[in-house]
């Protein structure tokens, strides 16, 4: 099957997404586009020269016109977050970049599914919907899929079980107001508290539940810590975005914590944030709205209101 992916932005995130997809054999054709044409060319050449050891794939740099026929377009362009800078501080600059990109790429790839990766991802997903003129269901942000991966990694280490046995999510803004709906979190289909009371292994009859505040702090601050240590984050987000594409190309619909427009779910509208959306190669098919506790609904509203206030203060 032919799966064409165009990636706009050949920086650390965009080029690592291209590399990851090449190694995993997710796409048959990858096009890298960047305002710095030589950077895109160099990244494409570097990846392409390793393809004899991978699944068959064509990797090239190009222009917007080369995005014709794309099944998926990934937007990773924009300025990166600096040490000590919040995702929301980036908003206006990267919204202006999206304003330039959206109508141009939409002309050449009107049928593609668009995945926004640049931060602040919820704001830019909203902006791309406004500027591109494309149907909202064809546009998603990577949202809290990376936060969810960080959560599952933490809980897997804590409980000493495979990450495949961890079923838990991060919802809301991909940022400081994200939250974990612990009422939905499970280990092997068993609620966290019940699991801790009932587990029997390594001579233990019970295990203490994790400190929920510490877990949430870990998820929220991981990105900032990595930026502090190495000035950028790109491996985990690239694997996460590649996983989204892999799911889309599987032919089945997947339920993921992606960012998309809210249409009354949990009482929120006209804002993009993450909860459980059902997505396939044709776009967002629907959503799942499990019952949350009153506190969790309040946290969802807190995220939504923070993002709405930011949108109100931006120039669109």
TrEMBL record:
<dbReference type="InterPro" id="IPR022383">
    <property type="entry name" value="Lactate/malate_DH_C"/>
</dbReference>
<feature type="binding site">
    <location>
        <position position="39"/>
    </location>
    <ligand>
        <name>NAD(+)</name>
    </ligand>
</feature>
<feature type="binding site">
    <location>
        <begin position="9"/>
        <end position="14"/>
    </location>
    <ligand>
        <name>NAD(+)</name>
    </ligand>
</feature>
<keyword id="KW-0560">Oxidoreductase</keyword>
<keyword id="KW-0021">Allosteric enzyme</keyword>
<feature type="binding site">
    <location>
        <position position="94"/>
    </location>
    <ligand>
        <name>NAD(+)</name>
    </ligand>
</feature>
<dbReference type="InterPro" id="IPR015955">
    <property type="entry name" value="Lactate_DH/Glyco_Ohase_4_C"/>
</dbReference>
<dbReference type="GO" id="GO:0006089">
    <property type="term" value="P:lactate metabolic process"/>
</dbReference>
<dbReference type="GO" id="GO:0004459">
    <property type="term" value="F:L-lactate dehydrogenase (NAD+) activity"/>
</dbReference>
<feature type="binding site">
    <location>
        <position position="119"/>
    </location>
    <ligand>
        <name>substrate</name>
    </ligand>
</feature>
<feature type="binding site">
    <location>
        <begin position="117"/>
        <end position="119"/>
    </location>
    <ligand>
        <name>NAD(+)</name>
    </ligand>
</feature>
<comment type="function">
    <text>Catalyzes the conversion of lactate to pyruvate.</text>
</comment>
<keyword id="KW-0963">Cytoplasm</keyword>
<comment type="subunit">
    <text>Homotetramer.</text>
</comment>
<feature type="binding site">
    <location>
        <position position="87"/>
    </location>
    <ligand>
        <name>substrate</name>
    </ligand>
</feature>
<protein>
    <recommendedName>
        <fullName>L-lactate dehydrogenase</fullName>
        <ecNumber>1.1.1.27</ecNumber>
    </recommendedName>
</protein>
<feature type="binding site">
    <location>
        <position position="233"/>
    </location>
    <ligand>
        <name>substrate</name>
    </ligand>
</feature>
<feature type="binding site">
    <location>
        <position position="13"/>
    </location>
    <ligand>
        <name>NAD(+)</name>
    </ligand>
</feature>
<dbReference type="InterPro" id="IPR018177">
    <property type="entry name" value="L-lactate_DH_AS"/>
</dbReference>
<feature type="binding site">
    <location>
        <position position="167"/>
    </location>
    <ligand>
        <name>beta-D-fructose 1,6-bisphosphate</name>
    </ligand>
</feature>
<feature type="binding site">
    <location>
        <position position="64"/>
    </location>
    <ligand>
        <name>NAD(+)</name>
    </ligand>
</feature>
<feature type="binding site">
    <location>
        <position position="142"/>
    </location>
    <ligand>
        <name>NAD(+)</name>
    </ligand>
</feature>
<dbReference type="Pfam" id="PF02866">
    <property type="entry name" value="Ldh_1_C"/>
</dbReference>
<dbReference type="InterPro" id="IPR036291">
    <property type="entry name" value="NAD(P)-bd_dom_sf"/>
</dbReference>
<dbReference type="InterPro" id="IPR011304">
    <property type="entry name" value="L-lactate_DH"/>
</dbReference>
<dbReference type="GO" id="GO:0005737">
    <property type="term" value="C:cytoplasm"/>
</dbReference>
<feature type="domain" description="Lactate/malate dehydrogenase C-terminal">
    <location>
        <begin position="144"/>
        <end position="312"/>
    </location>
</feature>
<feature type="active site" description="Proton acceptor">
    <location>
        <position position="174"/>
    </location>
</feature>
<feature type="binding site">
    <location>
        <position position="34"/>
    </location>
    <ligand>
        <name>NAD(+)</name>
    </ligand>
</feature>
<feature type="binding site">
    <location>
        <begin position="119"/>
        <end position="122"/>
    </location>
    <ligand>
        <name>substrate</name>
    </ligand>
</feature>
<feature type="domain" description="Lactate/malate dehydrogenase N-terminal">
    <location>
        <begin position="4"/>
        <end position="141"/>
    </location>
</feature>
<feature type="binding site">
    <location>
        <begin position="147"/>
        <end position="150"/>
    </location>
    <ligand>
        <name>substrate</name>
    </ligand>
</feature>
<dbReference type="InterPro" id="IPR001236">
    <property type="entry name" value="Lactate/malate_DH_N"/>
</dbReference>
<dbReference type="InterPro" id="IPR001557">
    <property type="entry name" value="L-lactate/malate_DH"/>
</dbReference>
<dbReference type="GO" id="GO:0006096">
    <property type="term" value="P:glycolytic process"/>
</dbReference>
<keyword id="KW-0520">NAD</keyword>
<feature type="binding site">
    <location>
        <position position="81"/>
    </location>
    <ligand>
        <name>substrate</name>
    </ligand>
</feature>
<comment type="similarity">
    <text>Belongs to the LDH/MDH superfamily. LDH family.</text>
</comment>
<feature type="binding site">
    <location>
        <position position="152"/>
    </location>
    <ligand>
        <name>beta-D-fructose 1,6-bisphosphate</name>
    </ligand>
</feature>
<feature type="binding site">
    <location>
        <position position="150"/>
    </location>
    <ligand>
        <name>substrate</name>
    </ligand>
</feature>
<dbReference type="Pfam" id="PF00056">
    <property type="entry name" value="Ldh_1_N"/>
</dbReference>
<comment type="pathway">
    <text>Fermentation; pyruvate fermentation to lactate; (S)-lactate from pyruvate: step 1/1.</text>
</comment>
